[in-house]
Design goal:
Layout lengths: L1 H7 L5 E6 L2 H11 L4 E7 L5 H6 L4 H8 L2 H10 L4 H8 L9
Parallel strand pairs: 1-2
Length: 99
């Protein structure tokens, strides 16, 4: 699927949005073609442990960055979200492991 995405994009870096299974597709595309991606937006999706490691993250680091709503705003804006969108996203609870 990531190869299909590559075949339809032009040479400009793009922001990719992945919903559900699409999150894994855009993650794979980014890892194969980082120069073609300006940003990633994940909607109702997850990254596998292997993907987190390949991005230099681990579950503990990720969870500590989003535990408190105020921390979430800073975390989300660091990925390029506008402050107003980050504030809206920070309102939603973060799923906990093991639930």
């Amino acid at each position: 699927a990531a190869k299909d995405v590559a075949s339809v994009l032009d040479a400009e870096p793009v922001i990719l949005i992945g919903h559900s299974m699409g999150g894994n597709i855009i993650s794979s595309f980014y890892l194969q073609h980082p120069e073609r991606v300006a940003g990633l937006i994940f909607i109702s999706t997850h990254l596998s442990g292997a993907q987190l490691v390949s991005l230099g993250l681990d579950v503990e680091t990720l969870m500590s960055a989003v535990t408190k709503p105020a921390d979430r705003v800073a975390f989300y804006t660091s990925f390029g979200l506008s402050p107003s969108v980050a504030m809206e996203a920070a309102k939603w609870p973060v799923p906990r492991r093991g639930r």
